[in-house]
Amino acid sequence: MNERGPGTSPALGATLVVRRRIAASAAELFAAWTRPERLMLWWGPPGAVCSAAEVDLRVGGRYRLANRFADGTVLWITGVFEAIEPPARLVYTWSLESRAGAAERVTVQFAATGDGATEVIVTHERIADEAARGGHERGWVGCLEGLARHAHG
Q: How many structural domains is the chain composed of?
């Protein structure tokens, strides 16, 4: 299920919330999200694969992910971890290396549902405009689909 965030404020940008219930534990999904070798198995929007992943999992640590598309284009996503609360929550900045601008913020929550599954909630904030928000929504839906396939694989 996808839901719109609180809206758009000119000062703060747009917000996006994407949710997916996945039949795996919060600990398992947290590990899949934070270990480079695991990220490379599922990360990426439709039509892309994660060809490289670097993760320094500590507050203030950096991450860097490569989305390689079918045409050979590689898009690098980078940021800094602001909060790490295993296995429940991650908060990090989000920027594309190829574009200048203010960093966006992503919060990922892993909420156990009580039946062995986990609801993964991605909140992406400070998005520049609605066009970018739409691109992020497609990307996050694809990523969560990949994570669900990985968890069931």
A: 1
